[in-house]
Write a structure and sequence with these properties.
CATH superfamily of one domain: DsrEFH-like
Oligomer: single chain
Largest sheet: 5 strands, parallel
Order of helices and strands: EHEHHEHEHE
Low-confidence stretches: 1-9
CATH class of one domain: Alpha Beta
Strand order of the largest sheet: 4-3-2-1-5
Number of strands: 5
Strand content: 15-25%
Distance between the termini: 28 Å
Length: 154
Amino acid sequence: MAEETRNTSENRPSCTFICSRDTLDGAYPSLVLGLNAVRLGMEATIFYTFMGINVIRKNYQDKCRFIPPGPMGAIPGMASIATKMMRQKMDAAQIPSLGELLEMAQLEGIKLVACKMTVDMMGISPDEFIDGVEIQTAEDYLKHAVHCRINMFT
């Protein structure tokens, strides 16, 4: 039982978030939750897998789009219009850009992890990632996650 409740070496509660989509609504939740977690004194790790891995690639953050759900997202050009509208709403609400949030996350100590299987599958070179990204296997992620108080798929 003691093993199940073990925290990190610093004895702080820890949490993980999994990001698997490179859309605005896929990328923001894990970063916002991670930032709030570290600000509450927790350790936070974000595990990027499948298309979410693009979020931590160099020069990709401005390419993330908002794709409306359902049939609206299938209409040609709708994703571009919806992305522009979403970015305007975010600017008006003074929400930091995705690139700014990633920088804040790194400065505040959030561990950014790329899924090794996805890296291999997509043929991504480690130097394609923003600085500080660690590459881990799913097994390594799970070895950490099993000891976390919170694990969320965002």
